[in-house]
Amino acid sequence: DYFYESPFLTDVEFDAKPQVMLVGQYSVGKTSFIRYMLGRDFPGARIGPEPTTDRFTCLINGPEERTIPGNALSVHPDLPFRGLERFGVSFLSRFEGSQLPSSVLKSITLVDTPGILSGEKQRVNRGYDFTKVVSWFADRADLILLLFDAHKLDISDELKATIDVLKGHEDKVRCILNKADQINRQQLMRVYGSLLWSLGKTINSPEVLRVYVGSFWHEPLQNMDNAELFESEESDLMRDLAILPRQSAVRKINELVKRIRKVKTLAYIIGHLKSQMPAVMGKDKKQQKLIGDMPNVFRTIMKKHNLAPGDFPDINKFSEKLKDTKFSEFHSLKLDQIQLLEDCLSSHLPKLMEELPSEKDSPETLKAKFSTGRVDNTYVPVPTGAGKFGKADNNAMASNPFGAAEDADEYWALEESAERLKESFEALGPQGGFLSPQTAKEVLVKTGLQKEQLRQIWALSDIDRDGYFDHHEYVVAMFLCDAVMQKGRPIPAELPMSVIPPSKRSLLKERGGGFF
Question: Which residues of 447-459 are buried (b: 16+ CB within 10 A; e: fewer)?
Answer without folding.
Answer: bebeeebbebbbe
